[in-house]
Amino acid sequence: MKDTHLASSLRNVTSKLFKRLRQQINTIDNLSITEISTLSNLYNHQPLFPSQMAEMVKIKAQSMSQIINKLEEANLILKTPSETDKRKVSVSLSGFGKEMVDKTRFERDEWLNEAIEHHLSVADKKLLQEAVALMEKLAEYK
Fold it and tell me: Structural domains in the chain?
């Protein structure tokens, strides 16, 4: 039988850290985790078609359509008709959307950097750096 204690502990602590990081967002109010993930995906991979965006966050195309409408109303994204197929649109971040993602990432990084500086010793920081490399390996597991 597998000992799932380590896996459970890792899941719990990463979830707790994720929630703490989400609390640090002062820039973008009233957006869900899926909406923030959508903006982040656009930041890294734009332009995207709605079907690609839905696949990236593991939701149905109809749900993504609602998210796109909300983000467009907030002036965070731009929709551009396809040049080859007028029925399709590509989506990209607006200048304001890019600015908001940059600010959000900065706020999270600042909080995390402050937490690391104030709560971890030099040895802890070295160990954390090694743990980050291990977590990267876990994140790549399929």
Answer: 5-140 (1.10.10.10)
